[in-house]
Structures are given as structure tokens and as C-alpha cells.
Amino acid sequence: MKTRKTGFIFLLLNIIFACSTFAQKYNEVDKIVLKYPKNFSTTEKLAERINQDFKSDIDKARAIYSWIAFNIRYDYNAFLNPQRTQGFSYSTEAEKQRKIKELNDRLYQKAFSSKKAVCEGFTALYQHLAELSGLKCEIIRGDSKISVRDIGRKNTSSNHAWNIVLIDRKWRLIDVTWGQGYFDSSKGRMVTDFSSIYFDTDPDYFFAKHFPDSGSYLGDKLNKDDFLNGPLIYNKTIENDFKIKSPNSGIIEAKYGDKINVEIKNLTKSDQVFYLNKRNQPVLIKNAKEKRGGLEFQILYDNNIGDYITIFVNTNSIVSFKVIPR
């Protein structure tokens, strides 16, 4: 009888947890869009449905984000085997813009019909649906930071694309490609996992992981060195607003015996904080102190630490640093 009761409580807790996770993952707009058909005959029909169901610009922009993230999958094979870039010539700015539009039209039509795309297709489809919904939207191309190997890179490259959309006289940052899921290196495949954090992302977090080809955002120059040399942050960092205050660089120079000081905002002592040593064994942080709205602690640099330190909070990776021995 006791086993049955324990099993029932466990099942109940799992149901409660699942419902809680669902509630946190999707907002009211998302829940409506989840009921939409996977297939619409045209992009105009989809935009018509969105404009019928939602009246505010922010809700329309979110509905477009959600539908694309729910229904368009990242084409990892196309990423591994990219088609040769087709250049074009032009004699006037008007001709250049017309040819860019023709290219983007082909991209969004292919993404919409095949239900798969790489970032260029995601962004072209988002821009097209936004414009059909009366929103001003642009595509931004630039660099992305997704791996510990990106920490301390010497140069940026143009390897990604995202959107900005104007809502209530404010440009919002959108990366629907990353909103639909991620690549799981341990499984060697894309994982579908809707995330809302790349819709209207805080610029401080966004530009820790993105760097536009122009080197600027809304006329303000961005610091390329900060992007290249900054720590790598993860989705849970943004989702929980875990601000990394120290170290302020992603590159740590240290010698054996040094203590690396770490400060992360919006953590408490009730959070389980640890890092992995070079044998992938968890090392629990035991010297953490609550201070200034977060946790401060030290990590001893010794021969058990490898080339990188990744800090976890409650099993989720939060931030990675590159360590250079002195």
C-alpha cells in the first residue's frame, strides 16, 4: 500500500511539474498558435489568421515567432552541405534591393513549403509574415557564438542571421532560428525545443551571442573584442537573468594555486552550483556567499581543471570561460 501511495505521489508531482513547465514555457499567444494548422495554403492565409486573432503589434510579432518555431525545422543537412552562394550584379541601389527581395522571396517560399530551413530561410519567412501583418521588420546578418571554442576567437565571420522588428516605436531583437531548438552534439542531431528567450531579447544578452556584420546596432557601435573575448552564456542564463559580473572576460589567465573569483547575480544559496573537472566529474561549490543580490564564490585552479570551466546551476550550464595557464 505504501509503494502504491509513493508511486501515486511521484506521478502527481510529475504531472504538477509538467503543467508548471508548460505554463512557464508558453504564454497566451503561444497557446493559441499551438492550435493552428501546421500547413496553410499560403503565407497570406497564415497572416490573415494571425491578424484576425491578435490586435496588438507585440502579439502579432510573437504569434509569427511561435508559428515558425513550432512548424519550421532547422535543416542541418543543408547547413552541412551549403549551396554555392549565387552573386548578382546591379547598376543602381533600386536594382540591388529588388534582387535582394527576389532572393528573400525564394527563401521564405522554400521554408514555408518544405517546413525546413537554415537561418536565412527563418529570417526571410519572419520578415515576410511580419510585413503581411503590418509590421516593419529587417534582416540582420552577422556572427554567432555557440561553442566554448568561440571564446577568444580572433575574428568575426558572417555565419548567422536574425531579425529586428519595430513595435511601439522600439526595435526588438528576434532570433526565431534559435527559438525553435538547438543542436545536441552528444546526439549529433537537432533537437526541437521551443524557447521564448530569443523573442524581444535584452540587447546585453543578445549581443553576447550575436555580432552584426555592420559592427553596430541602431547607430551605436558594438565592441567586437567584448564579443570575441567574452564568456559564453547559455539559454538558462538569459531565461533566469543570471548576470555574470565576474570574471568580466571569457579568458582567464591563471597559475596553479590561484583562486578564480566568480560573481553571478540572481542566484541564492538554495541553488546547487558546480563545475565539471577535466574528467567530467562534478565539483560542488561549497564556499558560496550571498552578496549584492547574487552569489560570490571561488574556484581553485589546479591540474584537475582543463582548458575550460563551465559553471552549472541546478544541472543547467550557465557560463563558460577559457583558461590559459600562466
Automatic annotation (TrEMBL):
<dbReference type="InterPro" id="IPR002931">
    <property type="entry name" value="Transglutaminase-like"/>
</dbReference>
<feature type="domain" description="Transglutaminase-like">
    <location>
        <begin position="111"/>
        <end position="178"/>
    </location>
</feature>
<feature type="signal peptide">
    <location>
        <begin position="1"/>
        <end position="23"/>
    </location>
</feature>
<dbReference type="Pfam" id="PF01841">
    <property type="entry name" value="Transglut_core"/>
</dbReference>
<keyword id="KW-0732">Signal</keyword>
<dbReference type="InterPro" id="IPR038765">
    <property type="entry name" value="Papain-like_cys_pep_sf"/>
</dbReference>
<dbReference type="InterPro" id="IPR052557">
    <property type="entry name" value="CAP/Cytokinesis_protein"/>
</dbReference>
<protein>
    <submittedName>
        <fullName>Transglutaminase domain-containing protein</fullName>
    </submittedName>
</protein>
